[in-house]
Every structure is written in C-alpha cells, then in structure tokens.
C-alpha cells in the first residue's frame, strides 16, 4: 500500500507539459506501412503519403501481435502492361529467343568483259563483222572504261535501221565464267564516249558513234550468240546510249547455277536526237559481280 501510494504520488507530481513517452518501434513501423490490401482487390501500387519519411530496413522489428503482416511487394512480376493490361504470372521468367546471326554474302566472282579487257573468266565476241566505210563496223582506240584490266577500246556496230527488228547473226556478246555453285550476279553496261571530234566536213562524226536510244540487250544463260535468254527475271533490257555517255548503267541481277552468264547487244535500233547518217551502237564493256 505504501509503495502503490508512492507511485501514484510520483505520477501526480509529473509536470503537465511533459511530452508523452515514445511509442514502441513496432508501432512506429505500422504508422508508415499502409494496411494490407483488401481481399477484394487492394492496390499493390499504393504509395506512402509521406514520401519524406525515413526508409526503414526490413527485418529490424518483429510483427506486432494483433497486427496484420505487411505483404511482400514485387516489381518484376504481376504488373500490368501499360498497353495491353496483361499481367505476367508470379514466379515466371520471360525468355527471349537469341538473335539469329546474319551471315553476310561474299563476293564469289567479279570481272569486266569487253574489247581490250583481261578480266579472269571473261570473253568478248563480235558477230557479223564487216567493213563498209562509215557504214560498217569500227574499232575505236579510246572512250570506254580503263578500269578492271580494260584499255578503253570498244567496237562500234552499225544499226539495223529498224526500231523493231535486229539483223540475224549480228551482235556483240560479253561472257562470264563465274564458277560452280549457285550465285546471284549483278550486271552493268558501260556506255562509252566517242573520241572522234566532229569536223566541218563531217559534222556527224563522233555523234554517230554512241547515238542509239534505246539499245536492245538480252541477258543470256550462256556465252554464245544463240544462248537462251533469261525468262525470270526477264533478260530483255533496253538502255539509252545517247543519254548515258561515260556511265555505268545497271542491267539488274540474275541467278546463276550453271557457272555462265552472258550479255548480248543486238543491232536493233535507230538514232535518237540527231539526224545523222550511219548511226552505230557502241560495245563498251560489261561488268559482273556475283555473290553467294
């Protein structure tokens, strides 16, 4: 009785403005942690209304009797997609197929064919050659490409003077032996520049050398005059020599499986842009680049 009275007396003697005793640590944690989500779908993304509150390390205090346990929150599973709304299943790991390595194609063959060219596996043949002054075939010493082992020479073939038909047996054929194996070969035609300068006596001189538009070309599966032309893709090509002097012009790409491919320039055509006599089609050169 005396002890109890003393305690009561001490309590009564305490100053009225003394601050209350601090709460236990467990209760302080509960004040910062939101209540557990409700069974009917609580928000897992709930954020504390007091972002300035100091962080409390997990595991520093035990659960308070009578208080619900704080649920574990994960940030990598069970989250909704911002675009589809789909969720991933907890405990699963997303797998990504490894990227397929892109194998770069390699050049299997590359050369230039033409008069005065020395490219490996190349050939050049003129068919139906004849001499008849300005009306026959000519060979010009310069004006074609000087790259790839070529010396700039080219043949000039008289036209058929018919826009719709070629002369049988008259053509220039550029051939390539590309080697075994399936390949895809890109072809380009070089259109020469005439080295001949017009004169007062012959103003058409030079202009008649490389004047036809269009020039008709056939891409062949072989290197002979009568080799079969490609049908898919079509081997029928046309090029304006009149507007491409000194330029490489693409003839497209073709699949090669028999190791040979050729380009035939026919004499079909008429002059374009100038009223010249004895118009000619220039042979120039053909370039092949094959890959597999």
The helix/strand class is mainly beta
The order of strands across the largest sheet is 2-5-10-7-8
Oligomer: single chain
CATH fold label of the domain at 107-291: Jelly Rolls
Shape: elongated
Enumerate how many helices there are, as a single number: 2
- Rounded to the nearest angstrom, the distance between the terminal CA atoms is 107 Å
**Residue share in helices?**
under 10%
β-strand percent reads: 25-35%
Please trace the helix and strand order, writing H or E for each element.
HHEEEEEEEEEEEE
Low-pLDDT parts are 1-16, 24-34, 38-65, 67-88
pLDDT average, as an integer?
Answer: 76
CATH superfamily of the domain at 107-291: Galactose-binding domain-like
CATH architecture of the domain at 107-291: Sandwich
Compute the number of strand runs. 12
Report the top-level CATH class of the domain at 107-291.
Answer: Mainly Beta
**Integer-rounded radius of gyration:** 44 Å
Q: Characterize the largest beta sheet: strand count, sense, and whether it forms a barrel.
A: 5 strands, antiparallel
Task: Write structural notes for this entry.
By secondary structure, the chain is mainly beta. It has a domain of 185 residues: Sandwich (Jelly Rolls). The chain is built from two helices and twelve strands. The protein has a five-stranded antiparallel sheet, with no helix packed on it. The relative contact order is 0.17. The N terminus is likely disordered.
